[in-house]
Amino acid sequence: MMLPRILASIALLSTSVAFAPSSSHPTRLVVSRIQSTTEATAVQQDATTSNPGDRDILIRAAKGEQVERTPVWLMRQAGRYMSAFRQYSDKYPFRERSETPSMAIELSLQCHRAYGMDGIIMFSDILTPLPTLGIEFDVVKGIGPVISTEVRTEEDVAKLADVSDVDFDKTLPFIREILGTLSKEAEEANTSLIGFVGAPFTLAAYTIEGKSSKHCLPTKKMMMADEDGSSKAMSTFLDKLATMIGNYGCHQIECGAQVIQVFESWAHQMSPKQFEQFGKPAAQKAIKIIKEKYPDVPVIYFANGGSSYLELQRDMGADMIAVDWSVDMAEARKILGPDIPISGNIDPTILFGTKEQIEEAVRECIDKAGGPGKHLLNLGHGVMQGTPEEAVGWLVDECKRYKGKDA
């Protein structure tokens, strides 16, 4: 088994080098990549041996089916913790990487080749569809997303593009090529393809603040103005975003995505009351649009920092709820109840620990979720920059190996 897997890795690698950043020592770069890929293959062989059910195990789990083992993927699995990824991120701006199909495809596949997660997720960003409404943004290294279009008033919202006129193939032509190619790659790799969107409140808050914000005061002022009736800018903006996001999720499915995760990345900025009044209805609308058009495609909802109001997420309309690392998995399972599929929620900093600590965290999370095959394993947030690469492999390996306490 080893030699064919190594040769396959080298073949994939030779294809990807065509899109790699230039180097003053190209031969050394290729050799080092082959060596690192070969080493990763040796470490991962047992965990990544393909079984017939691996193709859709993540999809089945997201639908709430009990599956033969606990599937696993990681938020930010395509990220700067990988040296191969940094070959691109150190040279090319984010939007160039995420909107150039050859690069986005390669960056999406690197981690799956190395670690064999149960899903490939498109390398992109939750802000990617904003320009379809006339909201311009960039991702500045060292700062993060910066949005130049101001949206604070009802007039500002009215100036945005009509959602019914949005043509994703025209405004985001790269998405179809990226997902179409990844769909073929996922089929060949016997795994699933994950698409994702940002939730309406998170995209609204990002736009209103213009960049990452500690307190989101302008956003909260807009919610209060909406509540007292002095301005309906917030609710109308959320409604417009919800429709666009729902349609964008449908577009991703039409391009090849088999699962959609909805990221409420700024859930921590909402109180339970604000979530009920603003964040939740808007997210529900987006999810409903996806589910009404594609009822058989599972949707996962993840509210980062929303564990303090987890009980309010039971009726999101999603097939599965992903939980962050700040809540104990057993408690989360208790709050949501036995009938709501759950995903999560290992603390990402565990990946800086020892192999034994990582493996123990995997087993504990699986057991607290109900045992092997009873949930979808993920981190409670994304893989952090600086995470040792081998640690990701240890986590994936243990998840695929673990058969339960009594095995």
Q: Which key phrases capture this entry?
A:
alpha/beta, globular, disordered N terminus, 407 residues, 49% helix, two-stranded antiparallel sheet
Describe this structure as you would to a colleague:
Helix 14 (329-336) links the parallel strand 7 and strand 8. Residues 1-48 have low confidence and may be disordered. The strands form two sheets. Strands 1-4-5-6-7-8-9 form a seven-stranded parallel sheet. A two-stranded antiparallel sheet has the order 2-3. By secondary structure, it is an alpha/beta fold. It is built from 16 helices and nine strands.
Following the backbone from N to C, one meets helices and strands in this order, namely HHHHHHEEEHHHEHHHEHEEHEHEH
Number of helices: 16
Instruction: Name the strands of the widest sheet in spatial order.
Output: 1-4-5-6-7-8-9
What's the rounded overall pLDDT mean? 90
Shape: globular
Helix content: 40-55%
Over all CA atoms, what is the radius of gyration?
A: 21 Å
Distance between the termini: 26 Å
Mind sketching the topology for me?
Layout: H1 2-16, H2 26-48, H3 57-62, H4 83-89, H5 94-99, H6 101-115, E1 119-121, E2 137-140, E3 144-147, H7 154-159, H8 168-171, H9 173-188, E4 192-198, H10 200-209, H11 217-228, H12 233-255, E5 259-264, H13 272-293, E6 299-303, E7 320-322, H14 329-336, E8 342-346, H15 355-368, E9 376-379, H16 389-401
Parallel strand pairs: 1-4, 4-5, 5-6, 6-7, 7-8, 8-9
Antiparallel strand pairs: 2-3
Helix pairs in contact: 1-2, 2-16, 6-9, 9-12, 10-12, 12-13, 15-16
